Amino acid sequence: MPVLHTSPLATPGEGDAGGLNVVVTNVALALGRAGHRVDLVTRRSAPDQPAMADVADGVRVFYLPAGPARAVAKSAAEALIAPFASQFAGWLADHPVDIVHAHHWFAAVAALPAAHAAGLPHAVSFHSLAARPGTGLAGGEPPESPGRAAGEARAAAESDLIIAVSGVEERLIRDTYTVREPVRVAQPGVDTHQFRPAAEARPAWLASLTDDRPYVFFAARLQPLKAPDLLLRAMATLPSDRRPVAVIAGAASPDFAGYEGELRELVAALGLERDVRFIGSLSREDLAAALRHALLLATPSFSETFGIINLEASASGIPVVAWRASGMRESVRDGVTGTLIDTRDPEDWGAAIARYATDPALRAAHGGAGRRWALTRTWSTTAAEYLAAYREVL
Question: From residue 18, how far is each of 9, 15, 61, 329, 371 by CA, in Å?
């Protein structure tokens, strides 16, 4: 599994790490537990990274010397494709595998030549697609680099298998590009032991952070696509004496280095200084704790190919308020595990938040339904879907 622009093991919400990292790492671990061998192949992005390290039984990570040994902004990662392709071809010659499964178009374009030269099937998962001209953010992500559309088109046309993370993404891929069959859907899973309903008091760090007040939780990279500003405007519509705290978890990627400052200015302009906490990216353990003790998760993102954080919230027994768009129609069951909002009007978002904050029975019903659904979507289930697709092309 090559991944070029980020280490699969990077902490989600930090830099350019996000749902892709969660999927790749957890599917690899689940495949390893099932007795398979998975090699994660990425770029050396720090001087102290070893050439190879064991991750778990059956899972290794390799760091190839492609480009500078430091983090590179996603918008500049296209320049790393050629050196990574060269290094990957050398790596593949020394490490026999059955299938190459690239994640994101950068890695796919880099890995395709070597895989096909070796007579190996090449699979790709995009995890997100560039927005088509005129569709706006709702249709996908802005192209971080000039070659994105052409690179995605090549990966779609030349790969022997495409694995999409949602039915929405599958349809978008088919509508946008000429594809080589098969295209299969394997929705992300969730660790239902780590992400579980609260059965204990808040940990001290979380109680101190929130002054033990009820809180709404947001977790994503801090960038305009994720729209934390909409959550802040929604919070401002709530009466100050009954307003929960808004906890914003995540850090800005290099391409949006000044965005957190803009959000803090908005907090001040809205008079929310005592009601908003910026806490940076969290470890998976702390993220799970923050989710299970929250009133709800808010996901105002313009576009998510699935929205793994929504499934993690459901596993944690809390409802989700999200925009009715893209893959979030699959990660949130409207009226069952949460509420999908049809507008970008802060008043509508504030009203949805207020309903959950003032109705414990509704909150418990949607949280309980979410937990029951999450128990059917473990990472072992996702890994089995990957294996079925791999065997099909093999």
Answer: 10, 9, 18, 19, 22
Omega prior to 2 cis, within 30 of 0: no
SS3 of residue 54 by DSSP = strand
| CA quadruple 68, 73, 79, 80: dihedral sign | positive
Q: Is the pLDDT of residue 138 over 60?
A: no
Query: Residue 139 — very low, low, confident or very high, per pLDDT cuts 50/70/90?
Result: very low
Q: Which two tokens stand for residue 231?
A: 């959550």
* Contact indicator for 332, 312 with CB cutoff of 8 Å: no
Q: Side chain identity at 21, as an amino acid letter?
A: N
Positive or negative torsion for Cα 385, 390, 392, 393: positive
| Count of CA atoms in the C-beta half-sphere (13 A) of 377 | 22
Q: Please enumerate in sequence order all residues whose Cβ is within 8 A of that of 263, keeping only pairs 6 or more positions apart, or say none.
A: 222, 228, 229, 232, 248, 278
Look up residue 255 and give its amino acid. D
| Closest-CA residue to 19 (of 166, 179, 228, 183) | 166
Whole-structure pTM value: 0.89
Per-residue model confidence as pLDDT tens digits over 109-135 = 999 999 999 999 999 999 988 866 554
- Ordered alpha helix ranges (H), the chain: 19-33, 81-94, 105-117, 148-158, 167-176, 204-210, 228-236, 259-270, 284-292, 308-315, 328-331, 346-358, 360-374, 379-393
Three-state DSSP at 279 gives strand
- Give the sheet arrangement for strand 338-341, strand by strand: 276-280, 245-249, 215-219, 296-299, 320-323, 338-341
